[in-house]
Amino acid sequence: MDRSDTTASNLAGRRILVIDPDRFVREAIGMALEEADAAVIGVGTEPEAIEAFESDPDLAGAVIGLAEPLTMLQSLRRRHRRAAFVAISEFPSVEAAVAAMREGADDVLVKPVVDRELVSSLTRALGRRQMLGVRMPSTPAAATPGLDAVLGDDPRMRRVHELVRTAGATRATVLMNGESGTGKSLVARAIHHASPRADGPFVEIACGSIPETLLESELFGHVAGAFTGAHVDKVGRFLAAHGGTLFLDEINSASPAMQLKLLRVLQERCFEPVGSNDTCEVDVRIVLASNQPLEDLVADGRFRQDLYYRINVVTIDLPPLRERRGDIQTLAEAFRARFAEDHQRTVAGFEPDALDRLLAYDYPGNVRELENAIERGVVLCPGHLLRLADLPDAVRLPPSVRSVGDPASRTGTGSLPAFANGLETGPISLEDALREPERQAILAALASCGGNRTRAASALGIDRTTLYKKLKSLGIDAARTAV
Description:
By secondary structure, this protein is of the alpha/beta class. The protein has three domains: 15-133, Response regulator (Rossmann fold); 147-319, Rossmann fold, CATH 3.40.50.300; 326-481, Helicase, Ruva Protein, domain 3. 44% of the residues lie in helices and 13% in strands. The strands form five sheets. Strands 2-1-3-4-5 form a five-stranded parallel β-sheet, sandwiched between helices. Strand 3, helix 3 and strand 4 (84-89) form a beta-alpha-beta unit. Helix 10 (256-268) packs across helix 12, helix 13 (328-342) packs across helix 15 and helix 18 (430-448) crosses helix 19 (453-460). The relative contact order is 0.07.
């Protein structure tokens, strides 16, 4: 192992099995994981590994250094779908890496492995497996595996469920439209579970979160020496998803050059890794998502029309949470139950005023914001009922009250109203009255995203530059919100 500082992870307290015939390698891997506060158990053979999983139900995952791990992966994955498996090999070919992933590996790393790379890989794998394993109470219509996590009885959500079951059974390309935080990733997983490829890999990538210079390598892989820092071959997401489903989130952020490459892959199901002349063929079902209307981007010349027609086969529109308020209580109860269990709290319900505020709030961050608000409330709640005081300020306080005491709220020739004992005591100009809803939406988004302007801009469906201009025009102190 190449020693380096380990990254922050969620391995604390997790029981991880390290499988390698070399005792010194086991110890080196174990030390890296123990530095991330994991509880490590080491074994040297496949039978020992299978026995360990059968006898220890608390094992969260394994790091596998066996030369031939496929049989064991296949056996363990069938029995332990929530466990995370990371394989380490000396010189894996692309075919061997793909085979390992098809048999159940969440990731394949090449020796020598940097400690932080191993910890990061295992952390991501545990997060994905935990998300796949979460099963919240389902509506009667959600009989398709995976749909039980997509809660909602609103007519538009029932339509989403119907489309998932119908389109999921085919190999048709699916395009999802919806604001950030509306649950596109969960729906993509539900489509995968509803398909004949359910036993194959589900691979997800957020195109907007990866720099343009690295996105091509992430999607298509590269060969050693293709560019500076490419020391070994890398398997891209398309090959990793062979035989399964590839979810391309934030497809609206792809550059024109990347859009052209994606068009070819979608048409011909083949590509060349970066730096290679060898063509790879893949059998992949494609699901895509956009948080901006692609029709508008096509009209503006920012998205290829031919690619839009190629991907716009089955369209699923996910409504924002503010447009399906009847689902808020169902979601809130499900999140409360889950987080009470996760954090070992005794929160069994909501006080009436807390539930009233949850139902009245507009949620610019959609379901994700509601989820974060409930988790915060469960963690801070001292008793059995979640109180109004346990909710974030953005949710807890009415918009007019949230603006009190904010010097940056004063714009134009008038001033926002002052309050005494909850009653309005001062005047407000027409200009301010018209601008206030936009201002409150931006403040709420910033609050829900912990002040992170990039995430807040994404939640609002605008870019960071536009958000910065709005902060200045609305008199919001940009320096105080800069994260």
